[in-house]
Every structure is written in C-alpha cells, then in structure tokens.
Amino acid sequence: MPEHFKNFIAGDWAAPTSGEYFENRNPADQNDLIGLFPRSAPTDMQRAIASAQRGFARWSKTPAPVRGQVLQRVGQLLVERKEQIARAMTREMGKVLAETRGDVQEGIDTAFYAATEGRRLFGRVVPSELRHKWAMSYRRPIGVTGLITPFNFPLAIPTWKMFPALLCGNAVIFKPAEDVPHTAHLLVEVLLEAGLPPEVVQLVHGQGSVVGRAMVEHEGVPVISFTGSTETGAVLGATCGRLHKRLSLEMGGKNAMIVMDDADLDLALDGVLWGAFGTTGQRCTATSRLILHEKIHDRFVTMLCDRAGKLRLGPGLDDKTEVGPLIHEEARQKVDAYVGIAKEEGAAVVLGGRTPGEKRLECGWFYEPTVFAGVKPGMRVEQEEIFGPALSVIKVGSLDQAIKVNNGVKYGLSSSLYTRDVNGAFRAMEELDNGITYVNAPTIGAEAHLPFGGVKQTGNGHREGGWEVYDFYSETKVVYVDYSGRLQRAQIDTE
Ligand code: ADP
C-alpha cells in the first residue's frame, strides 16, 4: 500500500479536504510508485492562508538574528540529511546523484547565507537636510508570501525563495511542482524540526491551476514568487498586476555558448556537454544553442557528436549514469516534436533525435542526447525553449555576429563565451544581453551568494539569491525624527 502524504496546514499534517490524491512515480522507472500526494482544493489553500497570517503575526515580531538562528539549524539538518534527500530527489525527478547532492548543497549554502543575514538586514541612516533631525530607513516584513516552484531544482529553488522570505520575517505558503512533492515534504520536515513555529510555513500540494491559482488570487497573499514557464508567468503577471501584488518571475531561457576560433576546444567541449546534457537539458540555464566560429565549426561538431553519443543514459541512482530521464512523458514528446520541427525547417539531426532502443531504459522517459546542425537564426529550434537534451548549432563568422545571434531571442538568462582573447571577452561581457555571462565556463553553475536572474522575457526585473533578494522580501520604511522642538519644513526651511 503506497504511503498517503499530507499537506502541512495550520500547524499540522492534514489530509486534503477533497479526499483526492495524485501519484508520484519515478521518471526512470514508471513501475516505482513513490507515494500518493494531496490533490488539494481551494478550501485547503484558504485555511493555509488564514493560518499563515497568524504565523506572520508572531514571526514578524521575532528578532531577525533569532530568525537567523532557526535557519542556521535548518542548514545543519540539511547537511546531516544531504544524502537521504539527494536520493529521494533523484528517485522522484531523475537527475543524477551528483546533481541532486549539488541541489541540496545549494539549499545548505542558501540557509547559511540567510542565517548570517539576520545580523545584517541593514537599513541606512543618512544626513537630514534640516538641523536636529535624523533620517533613516529600515526593512520591515511584508506578510504572507506565496512560493510557486518548478520540478527541476526541487530543493534549491524553494530554498532560494523560502529562506530569504523567512529571514525577513514573512510567513510562507509553499506550492511545489506536482512532479516533486516528496522533496518538498522532506524540506518542510527539516524546517519544523529546526524549530520554525508551525504556522509560519504551510505546504499545500496540488495542481497549479487550482491551488496555485487560488493562492495568487487571494488578497491575503501580497507577495508571490514564481519560477516556471513563461506562459504561466504571464498569467500570474496579469493577476498580480490587477491586484497590485509584489511578484518575482523567473522563467524561460534559450541560452547560448559561443566558441571562438582561438578557444581551448577541449575545455569548451567539456563545458557544452555539461551545459547541454546535465539535468537532461532541463535547467532554465541549460545550453540550448551552440554558436561556433566557422573556422572550428566542423571539427568541433565532430568532437561533440563523438562524446555526446557516448554519454551513458540510465537511472540517476546508478553511479555509472551520466544522463537521466526527462521528467514525464509530455516532456519527452515535446523534445521529439522539436526533432520533427528541426527537420521541417531544414536543420540536420546529426546526433540522437530518438528514444533509445535499449530494453533497460524502456520503463523511463529517456531520450538520446540530440544535436541539430545547420541551424539558422530565426528557426524555431533556435528561438524556442525545448527543455530537454537538444542542442542547436549555429555557424558564425565573427564575434560581432555571434553576439547578434545570442541577443536575437526573446529570453535573456545566461550566456557563455569561450575565447583566449581578453579584449573580445570584455567586449562580449558588455554586449551579451543576459542576466548572467560566463567566460570559459558553461551557461550553468550559479552560486547561491550571487544574484540570479535574466533580462527580457526571462523575468520581470527581480533577482533571486545573493543580497538583492532581501529587498524583494522586505518593505523599506523611512523614519524621520525631528528633535528641534519646532516645525521645520523640508525643502523650505533649509538655510
Ligand atoms: P513547467 O513547464 O516547468 O512545469 P509550469 O509553469 O507549468 O512550468 O509550472 C511551474 C509551477 O507553476 C508549478 O508549481 C505549477 O503547479 C504552477 N502553476 C501552473 N499553472 C499555474 C497557475 N495558473 N497559477 C499558479 N500556479 C501555477
């Protein structure tokens, strides 16, 4: 009998009022049922919001350094449970163990960063233009924050949102992706064991279009942070705009790696294999375009297909596996559909382009690492996010042309340049229109203590991670104290 997992609402583990559950299965082996998770109803969400408001009333009055101590304990518990959580994560979403361990490590780093931020959360004292008057700003908690997260970083992305939100004194409602409810459950267990007051966190499982939507539309949740598809982000943007909510959006990418003719090609090859096929291409920063200088194009495509063709597919829990499955059947169908689109558009499928034939892989959502060559700027496989192990190769004649191709998409998350020319590298840093640029490293690999986010339709101007995210989760208040004992008028009595 599979375990029936619960929501965490109003300080207790609670079955969904609907009485309905959904299955969570291992994407590497559909016969492996992990558990049944609540298909919650809007009423569950409403109860969670009412409880989170009570949690907020208490937590917002707790001194920030004390809030930081709770996050310190959260970090320590994550260290102790790193292996257990990594294994559970690989089982439910497929990426290889080295990557899920990295995912937990990012949560640990984020916890320890947040813990120390409890002793900073700086405000400012600035000179007033008037005598005997102080002018200062400080940060206040906002209220209940609603966090909506995707499947590809089941622990790291929730912690990017949750830990700064909590440190700033807010309560949290966590609506994880339907594909990764078990990791979400394990994370909330850690928070509670670390001593977070129960009503400060609520976990509500279920469909985005039902419970996610109920949360976004509820006036009791003034802050929403979302990572996911551009389509869902647009829906949230419209709702939050209408309701005047604070909204952070982190959405798609069509990230490119540029390899110039003077680059270290072996280094670039290691980079593109990791960037394009790590996490089976399901990262928002995944390398999905490879822009090659014409002088090294043919040689590099041969090197790439040779190595990518040898990547070992399999369950992420197997030590020998290099590429795990896709998250579900629709994701695999989407990649396969783009293979058809690439052919129709006149690109050549020079590697992969199919489901592997091996019997040992037939119970999972595996797809062969795929390379499209002869891709021209403007083709759909050059413009649209595929979110799978598919890489489009574009040939260019110069750095200027490479930058133009890089910038010619609607997204602007990550980019990468391989070159030994320091002048070219600095010029590209200026001109590549992305939130993140890597030089001589692939498009993936963000560190938790730096801001993360993209330009154009990747986001809406906010950043996660690092120091900037603390501005998002707090409200700035300004206080003037006039101790002159008389009326002093700003801009008028300033002699
Ligand atoms: P992906 O393609 O990565 O699954 P989605 O945007 O569909 O991206 O999902 C990301 C998160 O957004 C998930 O937690 C999902 O449940 C949630 N979600 C989907 N639709 C909505 C919606 N209409 N309102 C709120 N949340 C939603």
What distinguishing features does this structure have?
alpha/beta; binds adenosine-5'-diphosphate; 21 strands; Aldehyde Dehydrogenase, Chain A, domain 1; Aldehyde Dehydrogenase, Chain A, domain 2; 2 domains; seven-stranded mixed beta sheet
3D structure, described in words:
37% of the residues lie in helices and 21% in strands. It has helices at 42-59, 64-80, 82-93, 97-117, 156-167, 181-193, 208-216, 230-242, 265-277, 297-308, 329-345, 380-383, 399-407, 422-431, 469-472, and strands at 7-9, 12-14, 21-26, 29-38, 124-127, 133-140, 144-148, 171-175, 201-203, 223-227, 246-250, 255-259, 287-293, 348-351, 370-373, 390-396, 411-412, 414-418, 436-439, 455-456, 475-482. It is globular. The model has no long low-confidence stretch (mean pLDDT 98). Adenosine-5'-diphosphate is lined by residues 148-150, 175, 177-178, 208-209, 212-213, 216, 228-229, 232, 235. Adenosine-5'-diphosphate binds at residues 148-150, 175, 177-178, 208-209, 212-213, 216, 228-229, 232, 235.
Quantity of strands, as a count: 21
Q: Provide the β-strand percentage band.
A: 15-25%
Q: What ligand species are in this complex? A: adenosine-5'-diphosphate
How many distinct helices?
15
Query: Helix share of residues?
Result: 25-40%
Query: How does the overall form come out from the CA principal axes?
Result: globular
